Amino acid sequence: MTEQAATPLAPAELRWRCDPDALGFETTADVTPLGAMVGQDRGVGAIAFALDVADGGYNLFVAGPSGTGRSTTVRAQVERVAAGRCAPSDRCYVHNFVDPDRPIAIELPAGTGPGLARDLGRFVDRARQEIPRVFEGEEYRRRRQEVIDGLAERRDALLKEVAEFAAGLRFGIEVTPMGIASGPLEDGKPLSREAFEALADERKADIAARADRVKEKVDATLPNIRTAEREAHAALHAIDREVALFAVGHLLDELRSSYAALRAVLAHLDAVQEDLIDHLDDYRTSEPGPLPNALFGATPSWERYGANILVTHDPSAGAPVVLEPIPTHANLLGRIDYRSSFGAIRTDFSLLKAGALHRANGGFLIVQARDLLVSPFSYEALKRALRDRELRIESPAEQLSLYPTAGLKPAPIPLDVKVILIGDAQTYALLHRLDEDFTKLFKVKSEFGPAMDLEAASIRSYAGFVSKSARARGLLPFGKDAVGAIVEAGARAAEHQGRLSTRFDEIEEIVVEADHWARAAASGLVRAEHVGRAIDERERRVSLVEDEIQRLIDEGTLAIDTRAKIVGQVNGLAVLDFGDHAFARPSRITARTGMGGEGVVDIEREAKLSGPTHSKGVLILSGYLIGQYARERPLVLSARLTFEQTYGGVEGDSASAAELFAILSSLTDLAIDQGIAVTGSLDQLGLVQAIGAVTEKIEGHYKVCLSQGLTGTQGVIIPRANVRHLMLRREVVDAVAAGRFHVWAIGTVDEGIALLTGVPAGTRGPDGTFPQETVHGRVEARLASFAKRLAEYARGGGPPGSGPAAT
């Protein structure tokens, strides 16, 4: 069986190039600006589906990386759908005259709310003027006085009748605040108590009998007097009602005529009329009420006859689209404000404020998921509103209070809204896993990917995007070479030769900055060199740590050798990611092996500096050693692996191939060329698997080799599966083309170890053994030697494993 060799990659395989001449234009001035989102057909289709389904549970969660156009696309699609729908009703609150703590919600045709508020306001203004005027008029006073005089005449006649009856029985009467008092007369004068006591018993009995007759007459007359007073009071009330209706009745009738089709408004106008009549004593004068009444709200307020327009909509504007940037509980569901007066606070229906859900009712609400989740009470309140399909304005403080407090309980408003949450995939997964209500309320997921296929249509879309950005921002036209450079930057950002990044916000930053450098160079057109300058300057601004690490390598503080050949040592490649900048540098991986039974010991793991993925990689490496070399005999081996001069922890399995090569080198005493760095993940069968950040890793090793001097033999070994992910800088590609640097692709351990040591890996012969001078043959011979010596130790009584024979 012939061994497969590592594949040296040609320059054309290291980077995809965009041919500017194939773009079909000279500058973006000739390119139609991009009109719609591209590369997100799956996500856009899900949005369209969710917006088309009217069921209340089909709210939408848009998931994907930031910068992929999630928010822009959602807003554009929602606004397009909303424009074709009818504007929803206006909503207002009015005073509840039966239960003031429970304001009444009224639904109004779109756009009519402000008119109702103005009409009620004008009614109040006119009523405040007309009611005092008519009650201060001469006609009102005359009619009122007639009733009062009639009552006085009727009462006097009744009292006169009683007095004459009593006088006939020699009794006198007196009207007091407590009623009618009577007493016997003697010679026309009141009989004193002493004189009465001195009378004979017969006289006393006679006086008592006459007193009973007088009392009977008084008792019979008093109801008549009370009836007369009630009738007079009713007459006065009728006059007040008649006068009040004369003053404001026509005003209310005008309003009734204007809002005849709205039963709720008519009911409010009827309640206003009755309340006005019931409180005429408070309104018949323009003088303010006493301070205690004003302070504690005992005096009714004119404002309660108005309307608090919570939400109004333009009838021609379609359904509302609301973006809530700060989704607190109050901003979502509204709030109840309070007014301070003389050290006390009070509230009423006029202090109810709308939330985003009120404004979006009948339309669409767009919220960032993370902002919603970090705001206390907001997520649960939103779910409750969607589940119950009604809006209640409540204060979260009342829910936390240990004691119930009196406060407003506004009537709920029916809710019909489509909610769109925008977030990342992790947030969606978290809600989907931990909240059982989430899947019932947000049944549609729209996924936005970070990349799209690189094809002619997507390249045209990039050109259209550059044209759109240049025109919208007033930038210089971009030449075809500049557009080609931007397309290549998109492929590099996607980390794939067959994909383009859809994170258009990052692409637009390059466009803006390239324009800046073109203007700085006094160019009337943005060229490829300006795009390259923009990319280089962007990296330079965030590469301080990278440069400092390179300085430490150049000074020898970090020991990295790219020229020597060393046994048991290989240069792995580690990526450092600081969020806004990721880069790679070689990292020395060393192995020491000897006789023993401990197997492979990961020093990072023992020192608790190893992440779980790295620990898994080392265990897989151990599995490879067992499967390759312990088929017929025990694996007698003690090996120590470590990343030299690393102190902050190691994670990932991309160094597992390099770690295995270090162990094999140590076991065979075959030196490894330190100019060749290695990256690749290993499986137990000896296959080398794809890893991430392959472009950064190659460029990181290239920079170190360049600093120490290119020898023509240096390079990087990568997994063959990663070739399609290469988008190397032109500088590195040119070095490969000139033979000063190399990139090799491997698919197995055998290919890699043969390249590193210059010795064939070896394949098993018919007898199941490896040729002695191959790498595997040498490993097997060394392990057999370990096993034999261990057996000799055992037979000789020596302590096995008392000291590994290090190599």
Tell me about this structure.
With 807 residues, the chain is an alpha/beta fold. 48% of the residues lie in helices and 16% in strands. The protein has an 8-stranded mixed sheet with strand order 1-31-30-27-22-23-25-24, with helices on both faces. A 5-stranded parallel sheet has the order 9-14-17-2-18.
Provide keyphrases for this structure.
5-stranded parallel beta sheet, alpha/beta, 807 residues, disordered C terminus, single chain, 8-stranded mixed beta sheet, elongated, 29 helices, 48% helix
User: What value does the average pLDDT take?
Assistant: 89
Strand content: 15-25%
User: What Rg, in angstroms, do the CA atoms define?
Assistant: 47 Å
Strand tally, please?
A: 31
Major sheet characteristics:
8 strands, mixed
Q: What is the first-to-last residue Cα distance?
A: 31 Å
Structural class computed from helices and strand pairing: alpha/beta
* Silhouette: elongated
Count of helical stretches? 29
| Assembly of the depicted chains | single chain
As laid out across the biggest beta sheet, the strand order is 1-31-30-27-22-23-25-24
Helix fraction, binned, reads 40-55%
Low-confidence stretches: 289-299, 800-807
